[in-house]
Design a protein that fits this description.
The protein has 143 residues and is α/β, with parallel strands linked by helices. It has one domain (2-130): YaeB-like fold (2-Layer Sandwich). It contains 3 helices and 7 strands, in the order ββααββββαβ. Strands 3-4-5-6-2-1-7 form a 7-stranded mixed beta sheet. The radius of gyration is 14 Å and the shape is globular. The relative contact order is 0.22. The model has no long low-confidence stretch (mean pLDDT 89).
Length: 143
């Protein structure tokens, strides 16, 4: 399993799971920068704030879904689900565009399933994790 370094903040580092599907952060970000540039810029600001200070109590920015899964959100429907790992990392596990008022149960279940796969990979020596960073970038908090 691959996790990709996204950014460092004042208190936390963000990494994103890469499982090779449309729910991966990199693919989502690339597509949304084409389709919804302004909304994606707002989402990036939310994630930067998450890395700097943690989850905000502002319901319009962050929402606890269930079982330790959170979502960062924009007014236009972009959603990025994440969970906290250890005390200084947030792991982005799934991204989607919400089309209805309530977050679909399938999106929550997908996020929980991806988190479980990540936790299994952390515990397993055989499967393991591969951390990907851009050339020349050294995260403050290495996973």
């Amino acid at each position: 399993m691959k996790i990709r370094f996204v950014l460092d903040g004042g208190r936390y580092s963000l990494y994103a799971l890469e499982l090779g599907d449309e729910h991966d952060y990199r693919a989502f970000r690339t597509q949304q920068m084409k389709d919804r540039r302004g909304e994606m810029a707002t989402m990036i600001q939310r994630l930067e704030r998450l890395a700097d200070t943690g989850v905000s109590s502002k319901k319009q920015n962050f929402n606890h879904l269930e079982d330790g899964i959170w979502e960062a959100k924009t007014r236009g429907g972009l959603r990025v689900t994440f969970f906290q790992h250890e005390s200084c990392f947030f792991i982005i596990d799934s991204c989607f565009v919400k089309a209805q008022r309530k977050t679909p149960k399938g999106a929550i279940e997908r996020a929980k399933s991806r988190r479980e796969a990540f936790l299994r990979a952390c515990e397993s020596d055989s499967e393991g994790l591969r951390v990907v960073v851009q050339r020349g970038i050294r995260p403050l908090r290495e996973f």
